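Example record

The entry below shows one chain as it appears in the dataset: sequence first, then structure tokens.
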Amino acid sequence: MAGRRSREQELSQARTIDSVREKKIGTPMGSTDETSASTPDSVSREVRRLILNGVALAPAGANVIMQLSQLGVGHGVVESRVVSGSLHRHPIKRTRTTLSYIMIAGFGTSEERAALRTAVNVQHRQVRSLPSDRVRYNAFDPYLQLWVAACMYRGVLDSVRFLYGDQQEGVLDEIYRLCSRFATTLQVPDSLWPADRTAFERYWDTALSTVQMDTVTRAYLRDFASLGFLPPVLRVTLGPAHRFITTGFLAPVFRDELGLNWSAWRQVVFDAALKILATLNRALPSPLREFPWNFVLRDARRRIALGRPLV
């Protein structure tokens, strides 16, 4: 009972923090997009088909590196005191939490997104720099959250393009609107998310000029690229392939910051590998093609219904 009361107190505090912070940035309590657009039915079948592919996780490693390439985000993760969210200590739980966030933020109902936001806030309130820290950060910073969500959107585009090629403008616009939920589910007000894809590209070009790593984040991310958080057997077996795929999906600015080498020959091999993955993906029946996304969404909804922890 004591543990239950403690968690209820944490959730209550998170709701209070969320309310105060959202009032400061001029948005109402709850998601910044509480209209019918937040219901699962608002996502077209075509966009679901394009996004919900297990093979779409291929750029995931590169996307994590992109997100952590802002010092505030990178140090927030490396120095985090949230033990339960540590990738090195709980890699499976951390992965489940990340995938659950993507699915509920993108495809959940307003009520599900509110439950997700509350759960994430409980963890995020512990992620802030100390007075003695060289790099200042706060997980509730809407500008850092904007950067993370922007990287997630770019990751979705990368996966759609390598699996299905270029898409029509209307489809790309819908994907963009859907991905805005990665930001607005937390503390990013709707007004801060770029209004359209053209505005986003202006934001992205400017943001890329601020990409920066230091010895702390660079060491962490190089280790991550080689799957250093996994047991030795898996690290040795899977690490080189993960490092290759991850490096291939990174733009030069991120590769340069990490000190990762690339070449024209590696690009040829990388492109060939993606074509093979795309071909195999199209041959899979829908339930297998959508795994693990379909499983993650059911699991997250079950956890919400049962009152079990989401993160």
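Notes for this example: The longest helix spans residues 2-24. The two ends are 20 Å apart (CA to CA).
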